C-alpha cells in the first residue's frame, strides 16, 4: 500500500536517479555481457512471501536492471529495427500516462478528456501527414503490425461484403463480422482472398494468418528485378484472372524494410492502382510503417524522389503506420487511418455490451474508439503523440526527418566510396546521384570480403558505439543501418560510423594475419 509522503518522495528520487542513469547510458549502445549476466543473477527466482517494499524494489530496478537495458531509444547511434527514440515532450507526457492510467477506449466526456486528447492527437497526425481530417477516421494501436491487422480486416470485410451483395442483393446487410468468415465466403462464392503486394514485410504475413486468410494468400506482383516496385500489368492480370472465385486486397509497401525503397513512385502510379481496385472491387491498403513520413518533407527539391514514393496515398482505403518509429514517441504506439468508418465498425463493434454504452451529457462528435480498433482497454498512448506534435510542430518534424535523411545519405556515400564495403542494392545505387535521390532513412551494405561479411554485424555491435541489424539480401548476409532517432547529428554521428567501421577493419586485419 502507498504510504503517501514517503512513497511519493521515493518516486521522486527514483525519477531523478533514472535521469542520471539515462545520461550515463546514452554514451554506449549496448550493455556489456558481464552486466547482462550479473543482472540475470539478481532477478527474483520466486515470489517473495513478504513484499520487499518500494524503496528496496526501486533500488533493485535502478541498480541492477536499468544498467542491463540497451540504449535503443536513448542513443542516436542505435540503428536497429527502426526503433526511433522518445522526444523530451513525449517522455514527459508518458510519465503522466502511467500516473493517471486512463483508458481512452471508453469515451467518457463527462469524466475525463482522455479520448478527446486522442482524437486531437490523431487529427494533428493527419495534418502533419497531409490527410484530410473530414475524409479520414483513425485509431491509435500498439504498432504497424496491429494497424495492418486492422487494415486487412477492413479490406476482408469490404471485398467479401460486396460479393455477398452481388448474390443476396444490394440491400443485404449481411457481413463477415456477423456471419463469420467461412459462411460469408460460401455465400459470396469466394474460395480465396488474395493479398497482392511487393516484398511484403513479415507483419503482413502475420496479419493474414491472424485473420484466417493465410500466409499463402500473400502474392508478390513486383517487377522482375526483385525490387519493391509494382508491376502494374501483373496486378491487373491477377485481378482480372481471379475475379470469379477470388476477392483481392492490394497492399502498397511504403518503405521496404531492408532498403527503404518505395513500391510506388508517383501520384500517377497510385491513381492507376486506385482505378484497378475500383474496377475489380479490391481494397487498397498501405503498409506505411515508416515510409508514410516521407510526406512530411514533400515540397522540398532535395527530397523530391522520396516524397514521390509517398504521394497519392490518400487515395487508399486504409493506411497503417508506426508512431514509435519516426514520430519518436514511446513503445508501443502505431496508428491506423481509414476512409470507411462504417466498415471498421462492422468489424470492431461491441454488440450486447450495455455496460460500455455511455449516456453523454456533453454533446460532441468523437467516434467511440471502442468500435474502431481491437482493444476495449488500453494505454493512453495518444498523450505523448499530442505532446510531441504540440512541442515541435510541422517544422520541427520536417527538420528531424531532413537530418535523418541527410545523415543516411552521407553514410551511404561513404560506403559507396569505400574500398572494403559495398552499398546495396547494387543496381539501384550505381552512382552518387542515385544515392542523393533514392536513399531515405535506411542504408544496406556488406563487406566485400566474404569471411568478414559473415562476422560484420557482430563486430560492429561488439564496439557498443553503434548498433546495426543483420539481414539477408540476394542470398548473402548484409548489415542494415536504420536512421530514426530525433537526436541525429550528421557530423558527430558520421564520425562515429566511420570510426567503428575502420576499427572493425583493423581488428579483422590483425586477426587474419
List the topology elements.
Elements: H1 5-25, H2 33-42, H3 53-65, E1 78-79, H4 88-100, H5 114-128, E2 137-141, H6 144-168, H7 176-179, H8 181-188, E3 192-197, H9 202-210, E4 218-220, H10 232-241, E5 246-253, H11 267-280, E6 283-287, H12 304-309, E7 318-322, E8 334-338, H13 341-348, H14 382-417, E9 421-424, H15 432-438, E10 442-447, H16 450-462, E11 467-473, E12 476-482, H17 490-512
InterPro entries: Aromatic_deC (IPR010977), PyrdxlP-dep_de-COase (IPR002129), PyrdxlP-dep_Trfase (IPR015424), PyrdxlP-dep_Trfase_major (IPR015421), PyrdxlP-dep_Trfase_small (IPR015422), Pyridoxal-P_BS (IPR021115)
Organism: Imshaugia aleurites
Protein name: Tyrosine decarboxylase
Describe this structure in words.
There is one protein chain. The protein has 513 residues and is α/β, with parallel strands linked by helices. It folds into three domains: 1-69, no CATH class; 136-355, Type I PLP-dependent aspartate aminotransferase-like (Major domain) (Aspartate Aminotransferase, domain 2); 394-512, Aspartate Aminotransferase, domain 1, CATH 3.90.1150.10. Helix content is 46%, strand content 12%. The protein is built from 17 helices and twelve strands. It has helices at residues 5-25, 33-42, 53-65, 88-100, 114-128, 144-168, 176-179, 181-188, 202-210, 232-241, 267-280, 304-309, 341-348, 382-417, 432-438, 450-462, 490-512, and strands at 78-79, 137-141, 192-197, 218-220, 246-253, 283-287, 318-322, 334-338, 421-424, 442-447, 467-473, 476-482. The strands form two sheets. Strands 2-8-7-6-5-3-4 form a seven-stranded mixed sheet, sandwiched between helices. It has a five-stranded mixed sheet with strand order 1-11-12-10-9, covered by helices on one side. β5 (246-253), α11 and β6 (283-287) form a beta-alpha-beta unit. α1 (5-25) runs parallel beside α3 and α5 packs parallel to α14 (382-417). The chain starts with a helix and ends with a helix. The mean pLDDT is 92.
Amino acid at each position: 500500500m502507498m504510504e503517501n509522503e514517503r512513497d511519493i518522495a521515493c518516486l521522486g528520487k527514483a525519477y531523478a536517479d533514472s535521469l542520471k542513469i539515462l545520461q550515463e547510458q546514452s554514451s554506449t549502445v549496448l550493455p556489456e555481457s558481464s552486466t547482462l549476466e550479473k543482472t540475470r543473477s539478481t532477478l527474483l527466482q520466486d515470489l517473495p512471501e513478504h513484499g520487499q517494499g518500494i524503496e528496496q524494489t526501486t533500488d533493485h530496478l535502478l541498480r541492477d536492471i536499468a544498467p542491463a537495458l540497451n540504449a535503443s531509444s536513448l542513443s542516436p547511434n542505435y540503428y536497429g529495427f527502426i526503433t526511433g527514440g522518445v522526444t523530451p515532450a513525449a517522455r514527459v507526457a508518458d510519465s503522466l500516462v502511467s500516473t493517471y492510467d486512463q483508458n481512452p477506449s471508453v469515451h467518457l466526456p463527462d469524466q475525463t478528456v482522455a479520448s478527446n486528447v486522442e482524437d486531437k492527437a490523431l487529427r494533428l497526425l493527419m495534418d502533419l501527414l497531409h490527410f484530410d481530417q473530414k475524409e479520414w477516421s483513425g485509431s491509435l494501436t500498439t504498432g504497424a503490425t496491429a494497424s495492418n491487422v486492422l487494415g486487412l480486416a477492413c479490406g476482408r470485410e469490404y471485398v467479401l461484403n460486396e460479393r455477398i451483395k452481388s448474390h443476396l442483393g444490394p440491400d443485404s446487410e449481411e457481413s463477415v463480422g456477423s456471419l463469420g468468415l467461412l459462411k460469408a465466403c460460401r455465400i459470396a462464392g469466394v474460395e480465396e482472398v488474395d493479398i497482392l503486394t511487393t516484398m511484403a514485410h513479415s507483419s503482413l504475413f502475420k496479419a493474414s494468418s491472424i485473420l484466417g486468410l493465410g500466409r499463402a494468400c500473400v502474392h508478390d506482383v513486383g517487377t522482375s528485378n526483385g525490387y519493391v516496385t509494382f508491376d502494374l500489368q501483373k496486378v491487373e492480370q491477377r485481378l482480372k484472372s481471379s475475379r470469379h472465385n477470388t476477392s483481392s486486397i492490394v497492399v502498397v509497401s511504403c518503405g521496404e524494410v531492408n532498403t527503404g525503397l518505395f513500391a510506388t513512385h508517383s501520384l500517377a502510379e497510385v491513381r492507376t492502382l486506385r482505378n484497378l481496385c475500383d474496377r475489380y472491387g479490391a481494397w487498397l491498403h498501405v503498409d506505411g510503417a515508416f515510409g508514410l513520413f516521407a510526406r512530411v518533407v514533400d515540397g522540398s527539391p532535395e527530397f523530391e524522389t522520396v516524397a514521390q514514393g509517398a504521394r497519392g496515398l490518400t487515395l487508399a482505403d486504409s493506411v497503417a503506420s508506426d508512431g514509435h518509429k519516426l514520430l519518436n514517441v514511446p513503445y508501443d504506439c502505431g496508428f491506423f487511418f481509414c476512409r470507411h468508418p462504417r466498415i471498421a465498425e462492422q468489424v470492431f463493434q461491441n454488440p450486447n455490451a450495455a455496460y460500455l454504452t455511455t449516456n453523454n451529457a456533453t454533446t460532441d462528435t468523437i467516434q467511440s474508439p471502442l468500435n474502431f480498433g481491437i482493444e476495449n482497454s488500453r494505454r493512453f498512448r495518444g498523450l505523448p503523440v499530442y505532446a510531441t506534435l504540440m512541442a515541435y510542430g510541422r517544422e520541427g518534424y520536417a527538420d528531424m526527418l531532413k537530418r535523418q535523411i541527410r545523415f543516411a545519405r552521407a553514410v551511404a556515400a561513404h560506403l559507396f566510396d569505400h574500398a572494403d564495403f559495398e552499398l546495396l542494392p547494387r543496381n539501384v545505387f550505381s552512382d552518387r546521384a542515385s544515392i542523393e535521390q533514392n536513399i531515405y532513412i535506411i542504408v544496406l551494405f556488406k563487406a566485400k570480403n566474404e569471411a568478414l561479411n559473415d562476422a560484420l554485424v557482430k563486430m560492429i555491435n561488439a564496439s557498443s558505439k553503434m548498433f546495426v541489424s543483420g539481414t539477408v539480401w540476394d542470398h548473402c548476409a548484409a548489415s542494415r543501418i536504420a536512421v530514426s532517432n530525433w537526436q541525429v547529428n550528421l557530423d558527430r554521428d558520421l564520425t562515429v560510423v566511420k570510426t567503428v567501421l575502420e576499427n572493425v577493419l583493423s581488428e579483422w586485419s590483425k586477426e587474419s594475419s
